[in-house]
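Students often ask why inverse folding is considered easier than folding. One informal answer: many sequences map to the same fold, so there is more than one right answer. In these notes we will look at a single instance of the problem. The structure comes first.
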């Protein structure tokens, strides 16, 4: 009997695999220790951090936190260079997490501090990590959140005692990609979210800090724009501009709720772009990582092509496979493509899941920066005779033309009609954060409505003599929605993706 119990226990242990991305987030509190931070200001920072930390650990017992100080000076070490001090490894023990004090001083280089945090996450013992704790044990599948408390300027002073939010090394002028390179890398390579609590009243400093912050939250002011921004220079941002470091109860509640929602779902994939100059060899393999909340069930896992020129979405019929926990793979054959027009496309993955009787969803794009993922060329089109053309050509629902497939089996007229007919509505930007403009062509009066994937109306508005209609659905879940414009006897639709 004892041996049977051991065998059962051994089998359970073999079959158990942790689902890190379903169990919590890793959160770093990065505290400014520079010379401009008074003892009073650091005490405000400390109290706010401890209160926010308490709420974050309360909302999800599997969240983990760590406190990292940044500055340039550390007792017994010279010269003054950007340094960080890690209080402890990621922990969900509140007493351990809340035990910290000021460690550094003098200069203020957050851009360099982020790079040093990257070294700690990669277990590289950088000499400018001056604490006994040299590394941070993070599981890549878990969401990573960095909360910055700082009064830093955009870029001012010297390497030893200057105040630099952005890259010290030239070129670091306004709007230059190099100025934000560390944050771009973290957002792209580590799927990190930045939340910035910033004490400043000077516009250039505010705008730089606001673009370091990730999309989300409630800030809708100006940001310093740059080409490589992974958040596409879009609003709102997780940025709080304040006169001191004391977070109000409302701010703490809002931030903790936002952070605790960040671990509800996750999709990430990489794909090397193909062009018409390089022969495409089918099948194509697209794989990545995903997570859904604990207790949720997958309703749909869809791979689609997004036309960069028109924003039209063409679903593929490729089936998803799950080779390992938290991993997925699409194997795409030519027959899985729904014969979109020739052009440049982005791969879009939509994951819809059900939890507590409600559907929710997220979408992901290729994490490799590229103008396009896939170039659909005329030479890819099949010349095979099709007995039932309608089964081979899937017309996207967001087009306003009609096709007689039996009368035009090669779709020549349909393609010409699609290319020549003007669009009656245009959505920009798309994808978007829920705030976008619907431009009307020849349609001046009627009604606009937004439907979710289940057909439920989530937004509606009547209009008269309008050329553009502003829409704000940023509070709705990330998902695919349908924009529908009714004008007389005509109905025009466009599919959008809300991130």
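Output (designed amino acids):
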């Amino acid at each position: 009997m004892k041996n049977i119990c051991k065998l059962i226990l051994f089998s359970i242990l073999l079959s158990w695999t942790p689902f890190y991305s379903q169990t919590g987030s890793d959160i770093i509190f990065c505290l400014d220790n520079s010379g401009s931070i008074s003892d009073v200001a650091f005490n405000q920072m400390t109290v706010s951090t401890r209160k926010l930390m308490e709420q974050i650990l309360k909302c999800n017992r599997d969240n983990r936190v760590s406190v990292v100080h940044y500055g340039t000076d550390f007792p017994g070490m010279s010269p003054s260079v950007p340094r960080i001090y890690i209080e402890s490894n990621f922990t969900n023990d509140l007493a351990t997490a809340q035990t910290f004090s000021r460690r550094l001083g003098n200069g203020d280089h957050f851009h360099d501090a982020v790079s040093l945090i990257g070294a700690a996450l990669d277990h590289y013992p950088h000499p400018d990590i001056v604490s006994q704790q040299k590394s941070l044990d993070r599981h890549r599948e878990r969401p990573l959140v960095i909360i910055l408390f700082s009064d830093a300027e955009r870029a001012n002073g010297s390497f030893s005692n200057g105040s630099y939010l952005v890259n010290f090394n030239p070129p670091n002028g306004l709007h230059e990609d190099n100025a934000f390179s560390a944050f771009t890398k973290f957002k792209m390579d580590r799927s990190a979210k930045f939340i910035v609590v910033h004490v400043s009243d000077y516009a250039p400093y505010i705008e730089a800090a606001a673009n370091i912050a990730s999309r989300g939250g409630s800030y809708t002011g100006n940001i310093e724009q740059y080409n490589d921004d992974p958040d596409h220079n879009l609003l709102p941002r997780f940025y709080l501009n304040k006169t001191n470091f004391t977070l109000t109860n409302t701010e703490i509640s809002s931030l903790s709720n936002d952070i605790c929602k960040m671990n509800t779902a996750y999709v990430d994939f990489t794909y090397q772009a193909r062009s018409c100059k390089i022969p495409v060899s089918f099948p194509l393999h697209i794989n990545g990582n995903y997570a859904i909340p604990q207790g949720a069930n997958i309703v749909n896992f869809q791979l689609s092509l997004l036309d960069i020129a028109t924003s039209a979405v063409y679903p593929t019929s490729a089936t998803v496979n799950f080779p390992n926990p938290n991993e997925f793979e699409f194997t795409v054959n030519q027959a899985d493509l729904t014969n979109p027009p020739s052009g440049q496309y982005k791969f879009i993955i939509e994951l819809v899941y059900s939890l507590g009787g409600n559907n929710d969803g997220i979408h992901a794009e290729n994490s490799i920066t590229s103008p396009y993922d896939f170039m659909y060329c005329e030479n890819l089109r099949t010349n095979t005779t099709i007995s039932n053309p309608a089964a081979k050509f899937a017309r996207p629902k967001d087009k306003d033309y009609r096709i007689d497939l039996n009368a035009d089996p090669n779709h020549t007229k349909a393609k010409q009609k699609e290319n020549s007919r003007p669009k009656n509505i245009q959505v920009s930007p798309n994808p978007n954060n829920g705030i976008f403009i619907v431009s009307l062509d020849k349609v001046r009066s009627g009604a606009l409505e937004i439907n979710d994937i289940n057909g439920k109306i989530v937004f509606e508005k009547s209009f008269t003599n309008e050329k553009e209609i502003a829409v704000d659905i940023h509070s709705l879940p990330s998902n695919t929605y349908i924009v529908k414009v009714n004008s007389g006897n005509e109905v025009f639709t466009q599919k959008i993706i809300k991130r």
